[in-house]
């Protein structure tokens, strides 16, 4: 099972919106609404930001939103803030050789 | 919210085994599924496997089948992940997390495992 494909890096200025894509196949992203997104700051454990494609856990800013179209899921961060600078990983349930697969990860830089 | 407290840093030799623990507080382990994820230095997250203690069922990623064993001790509210036949590329931070449905909402702080001769 190969990792889901994410861009290596995305950047934006404070206040802007950015979108991170997560591309898989019909065996994972495209086949189920079981995509989640995690934020990871250096040296810290991942933090759940979005679950089941577009749901936000309690306590996560409404600036974070998720969506999906076909085999590609997306995470959008609006009103970008300095504290959003981190690595972001998508994850999906899969039927290919493992139960879950993570994305390759995207480094978000706030310019 | 459950707190997951993981065991400390380990240094192991190639070919040996390591057992990492994950103690749950703020709830009974039997109420959760515990998943294990690792992250090699400078690399991404990798799902390894999970256990559902109440059912005593473990599932493993194909990549680790035969090398990883995930168990749960209900009496101590602790899950364990044992990885055998260690190689230098098993050097990583190993995380446990609570799996809720199909996502991971509470994470331990991670356990660094270094494999070196």
Q: Can you walk through the features of this model?
A:
The complex is a heterodimer of chains A (about 110) and B (about 120). Chain A has strands at about 10, 20-25, 35-40, 45-50, 65-70, 70-75, 85-95, 100, 105-110. Chain A is mainly β. In chain A, a hairpin with a 6-residue loop joins β3 (about 35-40) and β4. Chain A has no helices and nine strands. Chain B has about 120 residues and is an all-beta fold. In chain B, strands 2, 4, 5, 6, 9, 10 and 11 form a seven-stranded mixed β-sheet that branches. In chain B, strands 1-3-8-7 form a four-stranded antiparallel β-sheet, with no helix packed on it. Chain B is globular, with a radius of gyration of 13 Å. The termini of chain B are far apart. The interface of A and B includes residues 52, 57, 93, 102 and 103 of A.
Secondary-structure blueprint of this entry?
The complex is a heterodimer of chains A (111) and B (117).
Chain A: E1 9-12, E2 18-23, E3 35-40, E4 47-50, E5 64-69, E6 72-77, E7 86-93, E8 100-102, E9 106-110
Chain B: E1 3-6, E2 10-12, E3 18-25, E4 33-39, E5 45-52, E6 57-60, E7 68-73, E8 78-83, E9 92-100, E10 103-107, E11 111-115
Parallel strand pairs in B: 2-11
Antiparallel strand pairs in B: 1-3, 3-8, 4-5, 4-9, 5-6, 7-8, 9-10, 9-11
Which keywords apply here?
heterodimer, A: 111 residues, mainly beta, six-stranded mixed β-sheet, three-stranded antiparallel β-sheet, 9 strands, 0% helix, 43% strand, globular, B: 117 residues, seven-stranded mixed β-sheet, four-stranded antiparallel β-sheet, 11 strands
Distance between the termini of chain A: 35 Å
Rg calculated over all Cα atoms of chain A: 13 Å
Oligomer: heterodimer
Strand content of chain A is 35-45%
On the 0 to 100 scale, the average pLDDT of chain A is 97
How far apart the termini of chain B lie comes to 40 Å
User: How many DSSP H or I helices of chain B?
Assistant: 0
Provide the structure class of chain B.
Answer: mainly beta
Q: How do the helices and strands follow one another from N- to C-terminus of chain A? A: EEEEEEEEE
Largest β-sheet summary of chain B: 7 strands, mixed
Q: In sequence order, what are the helices and strands of chain B, one letter per element? A: EEEEEEEEEEE
């Amino acid at each position: 099972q190969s990792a889901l494909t994410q861009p290596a890096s995305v950047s934006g200025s404070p206040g802007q919106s950015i979108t991170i894509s997560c591309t898989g196949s019909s065996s994972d992203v495209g086949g189920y609404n079981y995509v989640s997104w995690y934020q990871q700051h250096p040296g810290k454990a991942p933090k759940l930001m979005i679950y089941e494609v577009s749901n936000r856990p309690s306590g996560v800013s409404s600036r974070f939103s998720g969506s999906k179209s076909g085999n590609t899921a997306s995470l959008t961060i609006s009103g970008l803030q300095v504290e959003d600078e981190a690595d972001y990983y998508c994850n999906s349930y899969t039927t290919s050789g493992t139960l879950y697969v993570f994305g390759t990860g995207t480094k978000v830089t706030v310019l | 919210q459950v707190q997951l407290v993981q065991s400390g840093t380990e240094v192991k030799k190639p070919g040996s085994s390591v057992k990492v623990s994950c103690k749950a507080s703020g709830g009974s382990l039997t109420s959760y599924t515990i998943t294990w994820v690792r992250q090699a230095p400078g690399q991404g997250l990798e799902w390894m496997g999970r256990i559902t203690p109440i059912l005593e069922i473990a599932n493993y990623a194909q990549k680790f089948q035969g090398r990883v064993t995930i168990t749960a001790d209900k009496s101590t509210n602790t899950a364990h992940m044992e990885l055998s036949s260690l190689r230098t590329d098993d050097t990583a931070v190993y995380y446990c997390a609570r799996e809720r449905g199909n996502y991971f909402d509470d994470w331990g702080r991670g356990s660094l495992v270094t494999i070196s001769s």
